[in-house]
Design brief:
alpha/beta, Metallo-beta-lactamase, Chain A, eight-stranded mixed beta sheet, seven-stranded mixed beta sheet, 7 helices
Length: 265
């Protein structure tokens, strides 16, 4: 586990999954645990991310899960999380709040309807407090302020920012270059940003992802203090990603891996 230290702990981010849609060997898809402000939140929960969550925190001890968009590599481990909450050892009956993007509840319920007949109860609602967020509004979880911005992606997707104790963490979710994402991340202590495209790779038609260089340019535009590159595929080394991002960004750069911990004051 790699730790990026700071003078004081305002928010702590544990990487539960750092892969793009095709997991790197032994790695999980998107997932991030944000702790601070009297709360524990999970941003996205892709395939394999729940297993990494259980290394540091039980599912029942999560206050809220926020899903950025309804692509499977960002939400599919909600299903094993449901089983963990339903059948795992429990010390409380509190339901984590599951915040889905607009339209996400209908999609998720359609998916689980294929096997939810096994339960006489609401397959999701008996363990989650299921809600949809309004991306034009903000949420409060404990003392954590949660805000959103639309990204440039293939389906409606929302970058997320978490603020507490004078510390700010922005998460790009999946996006091509976006002024809205730069504005949301502006001045944050940590910007967790996707870098899906291989060096030299180009997207044809509608775009939905960033290269390492573009992630660096976005971070520079936002004026963030620390750029953490994530959501990257096999076939590119951390050194290559860092070098590409450094051509567009002059601040501190990390290329995160599963179970890395980043702390900001």
């Amino acid at each position: 586990m790699t730790e990026v230290s700071a003078q004081t702990l305002g928010l702590r981010v544990t990487v539960l999954g750092s892969s793009s849609a095709i997991p790197r060997p032994g790695r999980a898809c998107s997932g991030y645990l944000i702790e601070g402000g009297g709360a524990a939140l999970v941003a996205d929960l892709g395939s394999g991310a729940l297993s990494n969550l259980h290394r540091v925190r039980a599912a029942e001890d999560v206050d809220a899960v926020v899903i950025s968009h309804m692509h499977a590599d960002h939400f599919i481990d909600l299903i094993p999380m449901r089983y963990a909450l339903k059948y795992g050892p429990r010390s409380n009956e509190r339901k984590p709040v599951l915040w889905l993007p607009p339209g996400g509840e209908a999609m998720l319920r359609t998916l689980v309807s294929a096997f939810a007949r096994e339960s006489p109860h609401d397959f999701l609602g008996e363990v989650f407090d299921v809600r949809e967020f309004d991306p034009s509004d903000e949420l409060r979880v404990g003392d954590v302020r949660v805000r959103f911005a639309p990204t440039e992606h293939y389906i409606p997707t929302f970058a997320v920012r978490f603020d507490a104790d004078d510390a700010g963490v922005a998460y790009s979710a999946d996006t091509a270059p976006s002024e809205d994402v730069a504005a949301l991340a502006s001045g944050s202590g940590l910007f967790v940003c996707e870098a899906t495209l291989l060096p030299g790779e180009r997207e044809e038609g509608r775009r939905g992802h960033l290269s390492g260089l573009e992630a660096g340019v976005l971070a520079e535009r936002a004026g963030v203090r620390h750029l953490a590159l994530t959501h990257y595929p096999v076939g590119v080394s951390p050194e290559e990603l860092r070098a590409a991002a450094s051509r567009g960004y002059s601040g501190a750069i990390s290329v995160v891996d599963d179970s890395d911990v980043l702390q900001i004051d």
